[in-house]
Amino acid sequence: EPEVTQTPSHQVTQMGQEVILHCVPISNHLYFYWYRQILGQKVEFLVSFYNNEISEKSEIFDDQFSVERPDGSNFTLKIRSTKLEDSAMYFCASSGVGQYEQYFGPGTRLTVT
Amino acid sequence: AQSVTQLDSHVSVSEGTPVLLRCNYSSSYSPSLFWYVQHPNKGLQLLLKYTSAATLVKGINGFEAEFKKSETSFHLTKPSAHMSDAAEYFCVLPSGTYKYIFGTGTRLKVLA
Fold this sequence. Notes:
heterodimer; A: four-stranded antiparallel beta sheet; B: mainly beta
């Protein structure tokens, strides 16, 4: 069964450093998403992406964040200058055209020290 | 505003006994609703979905949920818990085309 994959599974970085989280969505999906879950809190929507542009973003997704689909298979989330409060589990998801159902990856745990 | 409330952060049941995980929603229109499960170190997996067809929805692994508009609820049930059901469960409300609104999650513990 096709699945969404994410790398790395765990990323440790120092405050102020740039990080890029990688996702490979399901191959025939056209909608892509990033969510995050700070430890002990709910999963929060960050951004959705379709047709090479952002469809919707939350207030969390400020200028420090960016997304990119650099080729036909990858979907990345970049945080330019990480803060301690960016420490969280980041989930990538994808969905097909006309589908409400999103398929999630296993997540990348980002730890900012 | 749309929202989802999961009423219990932790639920413990004995193996073989029924499971009830509660979810209430708030929406200005008739929503779709999902339940997802997350096992340790795994991604979020869709358990079942309600999309305005039958109000009693059956999912994987013997789980089912009933959409009750009058109570604005979408509780998840299973007649008999198995050890492998121990996980975190999320009630999810799709908002528009592009995002999900998650509940805070319920961690299910199954006692031998």
